[in-house]
Design brief:
heterodimer; A: 331 residues; alpha/beta; Rossmann fold; 2 domains; 6-stranded parallel β-sheet; 6-stranded mixed β-sheet; 11 helices; B: 373 residues; mainly alpha; ABC transporter involved in vitamin B12 uptake, BtuC; two-stranded antiparallel ribbon; 4 strands
Chain lengths: 331, 373
């Protein structure tokens, strides 16, 4: 063995060991952006919690356009990040292609679905959480008409709407539910002007509680409701603080827990499908000092009873994505 | 649809049309002077951010408006330097400005406020509130006129009235003043203007500056009147729709008003009736009339006929599908959300192709002026 070969070999060993030492986890945020006060921000909070608790460091990337997805995943995988967590259904098709190329890297995808041996698919039972806030909306409504504003028209958002409609009807069978979608392109996640206009249109039709599941567009919905003295319901993160006294509650989707768990498991991340439902604390509703006056004891008792029934399996909420139809709402 | 609903839709249409109208008039000034401006979107976005940022910090929306106009003007200046002084390609300069605004707004917002590329929510004096016109409350009970005045005309933010006043003002400036004559001439035949001893470059810079001011107002309206704060990419393509409206309006101010009001109306209708059940015969009739309009519009050219005929065939196919479906569901059809959301764009094509006729842009548009040739 010549000395050159020795040097090369030593360098290779060094590079390999450096690669394993660098196995920091990574998180990739979807187009809504890290601070969308909603879905992605929740993921960011989970990552931050892990970092402060363990003192570890992680890498993060924010998508700016559709075309960057594959490049981002490959770059992180090649630089030795492990596991790599990504938020958003839009990563599914990309991850399907990327995951087999890096069999030693663990991936976790929130809201997507990828069937690969090194991928953890994390799904949330948004319909269950939406059912609970739907009950609260129906109980808080005086007009018997409630609204829903969705972001981009995708099955996931219809799942929110469908669970919500079922919750509303469970309390008030005669209630009218006005459901609107902002658009059919990713721009629908960042159009507060249109969100506000949709909310105004719903309020002029009598809606007095409006549930926004629309990312940045939801900011406009919450604002419009606050302007007209009506109630609104936030989504994903706790948005009660945005307009204290006007946001009835927020449907919590604990993406932070999902990211935290994935980061904690590290390279030992278990793959397969993980469903974060009401029973496991994956979804829920938010009560804090900002909305304490809006949530009556009666409301809370009814919702907690329903939550218990759902958790125990006595009550099933229909999942729109299971058969692409909704018994309580037509789209 | 009852009278009250019609009023609400008209009210919403005016709100939605205002930013389009301002941007459309901005483009009109610029393009009439021979400077194409793809960058309306970017200018609005920059103005939306600046006005929300300054209004959030100072709590004074008028300072915000001023800052928004300044931001938009500075982008206009870049466009002017690139395309007038250095005779660069106007389209490329405009596209570059759009990218610049898209990235810079989020970057600066993150640096200043640390809230992820957005500004804090505006409260109190940081927003344009709606103003009641005189006698609105008193006239409310007058039949027909009262509700129209109260619901539709009164109760908008002051920028809406500014935008509406800009229409006759633009007409007067362009068609009744010496300045307007020169401005239009610069866009048609700059050499003649130059021979007459008027500075082509000066005229074009002035036009681009006016464009900046109007875009600034449009952006400020988005973030401080319609919404309460800036969110990234919040213009959501309105600058491009304004450009389409400008072509639609054949570069004329009054047509610009009707074109943007039509766009606003279509968007308001699409917002209101996302999933309506309407009688099938009505849906079928509307679709077939649209298809007929397309065929009629395309009758002159073979290529037009091929493109528009194809679209007409699709519309006809949809109406046949509705007809087939209606026999099952007893005469009513639930129109899908996607169709309602596509309606403004489909109707635009129909109207552009069928009823507008030929839209001729200013002859010297897009060409940098070179003194000696």
């Amino acid at each position: 063995m010549t000395s050159i070969q020795k040097i090369l070999g030593a360098t290779a060993v060094l590079a390999l060991s450096a690669g394993t030492a660098l196995a920091d986890p990574a998180v990739v945020f979807d187009l809504g952006g890290k601070f969308d006060k909603s879905f992605n921000e929740s993921a960011f909070n989970g990552a931050e919690r892990w970092a402060t608790e363990t003192g570890g460091s992680y890498r993060e990337l924010e998508m700016q356009s559709e075309a960057q997805r594959e490049q981002a995943l490959r770059r992180l995988a090649e630089s030795g990040s492990n596991p790599i967590v990504m938020t958003g259904f839009a990563f599914s098709s990309v991850l399907e292609e990327v995951a087999p190329d890096y069999p030693d890297t663990k991936f976790a995808i929130v809201d997507g679905f990828v069937d690969a041996p090194n991928v953890r698919t994390i799904l949330f039972s948004e319909h269950e959480g939406s059912y609970l806030v739907g009950m609260m909306a129906a109980m808080a409504s005086e007009t018997g008409t409630v609204g829903f504003v969705g972001g981009m028209d995708i099955p996931l958002i219809r799942k929110f709407a469908c669970g919500y409609a079922q919750g509303v009807q469970a309390v008030n069978g005669d209630a009218t539910i006005i459901a609107n979608m902002t658009g059919t392109t990713p721009a629908a996640w960042n159009d507060p002007v249109k969100g506000g206009e949709l909310a105004k249109s719903q309020m002029s039709q009598g809606a007095d509680v409006i549930y926004a599941a629309a990312g940045g567009t939801g900011i406009g919905v919450l604002q419009a409701a606050a302007d007209e003295g009506k109630l609104s319901i936030g989504v994903d993160s706790n948005q009660n603080y945005l307009h204290p006294g006007s946001v009835l509650t927020s449907m919590l989707k604990r993406v932070d827990n999902a990211v935290y768990e994935a980061f904690t498991a590290g390279t030992e991340l278990e793959t397969g499908i993980v469903t974060m439902d009401l029973a496991s604390g994956g979804v829920g509703y938010a009560v804090d000092e900002n909305n304490a006056e809006l949530v009556t004891a009666e409301m809370q008792a009814a919702v907690d009873a329903a939550a218990e029934q759902i958790a125990s399996g006595a009550l099933t909420v229909h999942d729109y994505t299971s058969d692409d139809s909704c018994p309580a709402l037509t789209f | 649809m009852d009278f009250a609903t019609a009023l609400q839709i008209a009210d919403s249409a005016i709100r939605l049309a205002t930013p389009l109208l301002l941007a459309c008039l901005a483009g009109l000034f610029s393009e009439r002077a021979g400077i194409f401006d793809i960058g309306l979107e970017g200018k609005m976005l920059a103005a939306a951010f600046m006005s929300a940022a300054v209004a959030a910090v100072t709590g004074n929306v008028w300072l915000g408006l001023g800052a928004g106009i300044l931001a938009s003007l500075s982008l206009s200046a870049i466009h002017g330097v690139a395309s007038i002084t250095f005779r660069g390609n106007q389209l490329i300069s405009g596209v570059a400005l759009n990218f610049l605004a898209s990235g810079m707004t989020v970057l600066i917002a993150q640096t200043w406020f640390g809230q992820g590329g957005r500004t804090p929510s505006l409260i109190g004096g940081g927003r344009f509130t709606s103003i009641e016109l005189p006698f609105a409350e008193a006239l409310r009970d007058v039949p027909i006129f009262g509700p129209i005045y109260y619901e539709v005309i009164s109760g908008h933010s002051i920028l809406v009235y500014v935008a509406l006043l800009c229409v006759p003002l633009t007409w007067w400036v362009l068609f009744r003043t010496r300045f307007g004559l020169r401005l239009r001439a610069v866009g048609e035949n700059p050499a003649a203007v130059d021979t007459a001893g008027v500075s082509v470059i000066g005229m074009r810079y002035t036009a681009v500056a006016i464009c900046g001011i109007l875009c600034g107002i449009a952006g400020a309206y988005l973030s401080t009147a319609l919404a309460a704060g800036f969110v990234k990419e919040m213009t959501a393509g309105r600058g491009y729709i304004a450009l389409a409206a400008l072509i639609f309006a054949k570069w004329r101010p009054w047509y610009a008003l009707s074109a943007t009001l039509l766009f606003g109306l279509l968007e308001a209708v699409a917002n209101r009736y996302q999933n309506i059940d309407m009688p099938s015969w009505l849906a079928i009739t509307v679709l077939l009339v649209m298809a007929a309009g397309l065929v009629w519009g395309g009758r002159k050219g073979r290529l037009d006929m091929a493109v528009l005929g194809g679209l007409a065939a699709i519309l006809a196919a949809v109406s046949v599908a509705i007809w087939m479906g209606s026999t099952i569901s007893e005469g009513t059809t639930g129109l899908p959300v996607q169709l309602m959301q596509a309606l403004p764009y489909i109707l635009t094509v129909v109207i552009l192709a069928g009823f507008v006729g030929r839209a001729t842009p200013p002859r010297a548009g897009g060409e940098p002026y070179v003194k000696e040739r």
